[in-house]
Design brief:
heterodimer, A: 278 residues, mainly alpha, 12 helices, elongated, B: 336 residues, 0% strand, flat, transmembrane helix (chain B), membrane (chain B)
Chain lengths: 278, 336
């Protein structure tokens, strides 16, 4: 694992993605410490264009959009990471249990996974979000997480079944190691790199899901996220008012975050998956 | 029963199971809401109304439509029975319009937007991806990051940027809608021209993202195939490069074709937010309105329609693959 981390540092794609992501993270964590104002405070007229004071102008309520953007990126990344953790853990548990234990449990879990692969997760996401009245950003993140695990589960299951009959696993079995121990020490290390990649992708898609669901007006309440900024801009007709600063920066931020995560993932893929190395 | 029929029946059973679960989620989730959505909607609708009799009548009609006066299990049975007769209830927000009528008016717009965009994006993306993998070098170094960046831009982000650039700043295209609002839909040249002008921007924003995604997938598959053992073997045998390239791309195409079939299946729900950005009269815009008005029958109708089309597409793909994929065929043979 230490070794593969050293290789990762040599991958330009991974590094570009990682540096971009960390820079953005640093900016949105540090800036609110310097500018301690409340992002929801109305300090200007509606849709004031950017100037020296208001770097990205103001929104329909006359709020500082640059400050909103800093909090928005923060929320979006947090939602993405939490959703990624949930999706990866559920997918990992489902996939490992079904792939390693096999038999009846495999049949049931695979059936459940297949059912949730074909029902579009965005539909479930919309339905759950419509039915929950007060959604915090944590609740939104968890809902996204529990609707997006099936692909991870299927992939982990495929990898686990191919590992199950390898010699070192058989030896561990004969030596009388317990099932959790075998899964933890004999199987998990071999799929670890894959799981990390899946996590990065799940995080990216979590950020996109949050943005989509918030654009529909089903996002978290009492907070600012990139999707919510876009939703405000649409609902209060910022495009018609010509207020590009109300939605272009947020739109670009979403693109930039997902781009950096995709770059990291591609870099990792090229290293852990030598066959695609060009 | 032969192997294929058994495969068919087995798949059919699982898809029916999935359909039942999708319908159940669609029924039960919106009914988990605390409080009574009907009284909420009626209080909003009757704002300013003074005639208490009218208000009471609206309330009772909605209660009946939503069937809240019955126990939940009974409601579910009625819901399913109505589904079979093609009745998705009455819209709360656009009372007394039927949900099915609203969906029927929206779906042609959505398909008209998506189908050409998916096909064009798919063809161009695959060509670009294949060329990038084959030519390598500078070509690859430019196409790949650009494709990756475009692919990271969510549909709606690109849509909103294009809206700003080409509709607002340059004024080349209309801002919103499916046609000029003062026009009456007809087959006149004026109307068709208006539809095309309104179609261009949402179409382009979907095409660009599709090209990016397809190019990445095709590039990866092609590189994978180019490094496969049979390519090396063919090279050692002295087979011409052009011929090898044909084999490689034919193999790399297979997953891409599945991808195309899937995106055609997910088409109905694929561009909800792109439509919202352009207020395009498709499913997405109706759903946006429905969510803002808490129009539960319409929301349910939209989500159910999306789920059913996706299920149908997947089922069709599975059926065709059962016929043509040699691996599935082999599995069927073993069973016999």
């Amino acid at each position: 694992m230490k070794n593969s981390f050293a290789i990762l540092l040599k991958s330009p794609k991974f590094m570009i993605g990682a540096v971009l992501f960390l820079l953005m993270l640093a900016l949105v964590l540090i800036y609110p410490q310097i500018n301690r104002k409340d992002p929801l405070e109305m300090i200007a007229l509606a849709f004031q264009p950017p100037d020296a004071n208001l770097w990205l102008g103001s929104d329909n309520f006359g709020r500082d959009l640059f400050l909103e953007l800093m909090y928005g990126i923060q929320t979006s990344i947090r939602v993405g990471l939490i959703a990624g953790v949930f999706a990866t853990i559920i997918g990992l548990i489902m996939g490992l249990a079904s792939g390693y234990i096999g038999g009846m449990i495999d049949n049931i879990l695979t059936a459940v996974t297949n059912i949730f692969i074909v029902i579009p997760s965005f539909v479930i996401l919309i339905l759950i979000s419509v039915s929950i009245n007060s959604r915090s950003s944590l609740v939104t993140a968890i809902i996204i997480g529990i609707t997006s695990w099936p692909w991870t589960a299927r992939a982990v299951r495929a990898q686990t079944t191919s590992l199950r009959n390898r010699d070192h696993v058989q030896i561990a079995k004969i030596s009388g190691h317990s099932t959790p121990k075998i899964i933890l020490f004999e199987i998990l290390p071999y799929i670890a790199s894959y799981v990390v990649m899946a996590f990065v992708l799940q995080t990216a898609s979590g950020i996109l899901s949050e943005a989509s669901i918030s654009m529909l007006g089903l996002g978290p309440y009492n907070t600012i996220s990139l999707g919510i900024i876009m939703n405000w801009a649409l609902v209060f007709e910022a495009p018609v008012a010509g207020a590009w600063w109300a939605f272009i920066p947020a739109a670009l931020s979403i693109a930039l975050i997902t781009f950096s995560l995709y770059m990291m993932n591609t870099g990792m893929d090229e290293i852990f998956n030598p066959k695609i190395r060009s | 029963m032969n192997a294929y029929s058994r495969y068919f029946v087995k798949k059919l059973f699982w898809y029916l199971m999935t359909l039942v679960i999708a319908i159940a989620l669609n029924f039960f989730l919106p009914r988990m809401i605390e409080g009574n959505p009907v009284s909420l909607i009626v209080s909003q609708m009757s704002k300013g109304m003074t005639d208490s009799d009218t208000i009471k009548r609206i309330y009772e009609t909605f209660m009946k439509e939503f069937g809240i006066d019955q126990p939940l299990g009974m409601q579910f049975l009625i819901y399913i029975k109505k589904l079979f007769t093609g009745d998705l209830g009455t819209s709360f927000g656009l009372y007394p319009k039927k949900v099915t009528d609203i969906l029927a008016s929206a779906v042609p717009w959505t398909i008209g937007l998506q189908l050409p965009a998916i096909l064009v994006g798919w063809i161009l993306g695959n060509l670009l991806g294949a060329v990038a993998a084959y030519k390598k070098g500078v070509f690859d170094k430019v196409i790949f990051p650009v494709a990756l960046f475009i692919n990271s831009i969510p549909f709606f982000t690109l849509a909103i940027i294009m809206l700003y650039l080409f509709a607002l700043t340059l004024g080349w295209f209309p801002l919103s809608g499916g046609y000029d609002f003062q026009m009456v839909p007809s087959l006149s040249l004026d109307f068709i021209g208006s539809v095309i002008r309104h179609h261009t921007l949402p179409f382009l924003s979907i095409v660009l993202v599709t090209i990016g995604g397809q190019a990445i997938g095709m590039r990866e598959m092609s590189i994978y195939e180019l490094n496969a053992d049979y390519v090396l073997y063919a090279k050692l045998l002295g087979i011409r490069d052009a011929k090898i390239a044909r084999y490689v791309f034919r193999n790399a195409m297979l997953p891409q074709i599945t991808g195309l079939a899937l995106s055609i299946g997910t088409m109905v729900g694929g561009s909800l937010i792109c439509e919202i950005v352009f207020s395009y009269p498709g499913l997405g815009t109706w759903m946006f309105t429905a969510i803002r008005q808490l129009d539960y029958p319409l929301i349910s109708g939209c989500t159910l329609l999306i789920a059913v089309t996706v299920l149908l597409a997947n089922f069709t793909i599975d059926m065709i693959y059962g016929l043509i994929d040699p691996r599935i065929k082999a599995a069927q043979m073993e069973e016999e």
